[in-house]
Amino acid sequence: MPQRLAGLEMLRQLADADRCLEAVRERAAEYARQQKTLSREEEVQIASIQQADAPTWSAKDGFGLLNPDGRTPVRPPKKRKVKPFSKAAEACLAALDQLVEKHKETPVTITDSYTGKSTEVPLGGMRPYQFPRYFRHAPYRDDPQHSAIYRDKFPLAEIWLKWNADRPRAQRDGDGCELIRAQNALNVNLPQWEWSTIREWCVKSKNVPLFEELVGPFTPPVKLNYPGHVKQILEWLLFREAPPEAPELLLQLA
């Protein structure tokens, strides 16, 4: 038994080295036919010999599930001149915040999404979650009534639409994406204590240029009295009419 296993081991080593592969396979097959039964060790050796030239799978080819040569070539990232934030975006944030302050006592009607009951509260007393929301997942995404309610039943819609239409040049970027940049600034806007920590790290690690490239100017966060209100208003305005250049800007910022 040990001698037969040693012989099969020698045949397997010849097969692994791709030496006389056909003759080695014939010898292994003949040996298997001559035996009434094969031990587990013999089965392993013979199977290895028969599969000696089988392709080797790896993570690169998805373990045999894909052909790497058919993949789209990987393009190295390029540094692009893209502005994640701008003075116009900052001006929009400040103007919207001031507009909310101006109308903070104006009564608005809110409807509880669970009970369906409607109540009247001043704009300044609203919580951000009490604004109408547009849900992008099913089944809401495919319900035209859901999008229509969000578009047409937003609190004080006329005020925000008029502000958006009458914005001065100082609140506009050349590509028309100032509201996108304003929304982006709110998404990364940090509390003052977090800003101090990040500022200290950026200075010590000399990563100020990286911060400015990814986030915007290396300045303290925009101070707003109603950041939640401004965020909801911006989302609603962009839902109604997003600038044509928005997809390109967002892809470059990603």
In short:
The chain has 254 residues and is mainly alpha-helical.
Main structural class: mainly alpha
- The 3D shape can be described as elongated
What's the alpha carbon Rg, rounded to whole Å? 33 Å
The number of E-state strands comes to 2
Write out the strand line-up for the largest beta sheet, numbering strands in chain order. Answer: 1-2
| Helical content class | 40-55%
For the sheet with most strands, the description reads: 2 strands, antiparallel
Distance between the first and last residues' Cα = 65 Å
Work out the count of structural domains. 2
Give the rounded overall mean pLDDT. 80
- Low-pLDDT runs: none
Percent strand equals: under 5%
Order of helices and strands: HHHHEEHHHHHHH
User: Number of DSSP helices?
Assistant: 11
Structure description:
With 254 residues, the protein is mainly alpha-helical. It has 2 domains: 2-57, no CATH class; 87-253, no CATH class. 50% of the residues lie in helices and 4% in strands. It has 11 helices and 2 strands. A two-stranded antiparallel ribbon has the order 1-2. Strand 1 (107-111) and strand 2 (118-122) form a beta hairpin. The longest helix is centred in the middle third of the chain and has 16 residues, at 87-102. The two termini are 65 Å apart. The mean pLDDT is 80.
